[in-house]
């Protein structure tokens, strides 16, 4: 769905039927309110004024009871529809967020604080609930029932009707004045909450580093500062709410008082009205103002919710409009050897910063390509572009001659494996962590086979619970080499046509490196491979080497060719030969 119309109107358009239902309920509620007052006034008139026997008014009292029960039932129905509206709006917002964030490019995913995004997806969406469960039902009630009551009162006693008509606009006026301020404060509140959540998660994740650098106390103060700012923003909103309620109460009490005095004067001094209609009007007046007052209170919480909805909308905008995956897929890929063409790609993270430029380059099917170059020259960025995680600013990636669009990514991801230096291990069993390598279900035997091929069998044998050992956050830790092997096992299970690989530079002993190398050779046998290479072994055995410098491809060729013609390359190889000491 288009986001041009705004998230709120998008959400409201999904609620049309329920809004109609609420309007119907409100009309019925208006009839019940006036009916209840009429029956009550009639009962009082008969029992206390006309001194009728209880038996003669029994049917009247039963009717009154029935109307009261119906009113309660309709109110319940109103609340239920409101909750259903809130439920579906929250589901819609969360699924849009989930889609938006998972479809977002890597650059967007890395932008901003994770904790802030989590807070928007959880807290802001929850806060948006009252717009649908409170604000909308009260607003509909407030625009239907008071009109019914007013019409009824005008029929009974026009003067009271005029007083109600003259005083009623003060309530929406207060609502609007307070609401304008609430909207701004609600925006501030959610900014504070997102900042607080972001800093909190960031600090938790980096707790070890903070402690080691003796900065834990400083971070504690930062969290405290953020939390106090959030408290102040919340208290500011509550202050407005209390002032608003106080002002509304005064307006309501004054208005009821004026109508009551006017009725008393007409009844006692001018004798221009009888007890029955006067009492009926007196019963209806508080109903009228209470409804308007409830609308005022709901208006306040509605404005707070709008702030939350805007926060969700902003995050959705940042994530980029989620791609509608239906029928947009154009690329046709079959497993096997795939060629990749980089067609004059340029990319920058931000304007006026580092820029990657590839020129024209074809990676042939089954070719083993190594990317080398100084730190910061753009090797990982190039890998991210080829993987589809980053979208080029201009130029195209072509796979088997077909341009790779954002909509094709699901198909493309099915064909590739990207093994980074720090593979992510999810909280779960070792088995599940390997099994995510395939889109469809993999048999246990296939998972075991993949683990064995990746050299994980020895580790599994040492674990009490074997493949069912919980790893990742909160589970058993894994070493750098073990994580790499786990990532390789995922790839073995997937058997991709293209493998993108970011070799770890440090930390692996020769034995582990040997096991990994054997696994990698077996895995990459038939695939097209693009490796950010640090090991001399990989570089030497590559079919071609891309040498990158300042974001550009400085040269492309075989090891011997580059040694002969590119001094920077020769120097790099020399340093590697001397064990990295220069
Ligand atoms: N998310 C980002 N936002 C902005 N700039 C970035 C981002 N990621 C990387 N860069 C910058 O882009 C440039 C290339 O980074 P990249 O990680 O591709 O280099 P690299 O050659 O892989 O480096 P290394 O060998 O040290 O891993 C660097 O100047 C880096 O600071």
TrEMBL record:
User: In what residue span(s) does the ABC transporter domain sit?
Assistant: 340-575
The listed locations are: Cell membrane
The entry's cellular-component GO terms read: plasma membrane
What CDD domains would the database entry show?
Answer: ABC_6TM_AarD_CydD
User: What InterPro entries does the record tag this protein with?
Assistant: AAA+_ATPase (IPR003593), ABC1_TM_dom (IPR011527), ABC1_TM_sf (IPR036640), ABC_transporter-like_ATP-bd (IPR003439), ABC_transporter-like_CS (IPR017871), ABC_transptr_CydD (IPR014216), P-loop_NTPase (IPR027417), Type_1_exporter (IPR039421)
Keyword tRNA processing listed? The answer is no
Which UniProt keywords are listed? ATP-binding, Cell membrane, Hydrolase, Membrane, Nucleotide-binding, Protease, Thiol protease, Transmembrane, Transmembrane helix, Transport
Residues in domain ABC transmembrane type-1?
Answer: 20-304
Query: GO:BP terms for this protein?
Result: cysteine transport
Pfam families of this UniProt entry? ABC_membrane, ABC_tran
Family matches, as NCBIfam families: CydD
List, alphabetically, the PANTHER family matched. Answer: ATP-BINDING CASSETTE SUB-FAMILY B, COMPONENT LINKED WITH THE ASSEMBLY OF CYTOCHROME' TRANSPORT TRANSMEMBRANE ATP-BINDING PROTEIN ABC TRANSPORTER CYDD-RELATED
This chain's protein is named: ATP-binding cassette, subfamily C, CydD
Give the organism, scientific name.
Paenibacillus typhae
Give the organism's phylogenetic lineage: Bacteria, Bacillati, Bacillota, Bacilli, Bacillales
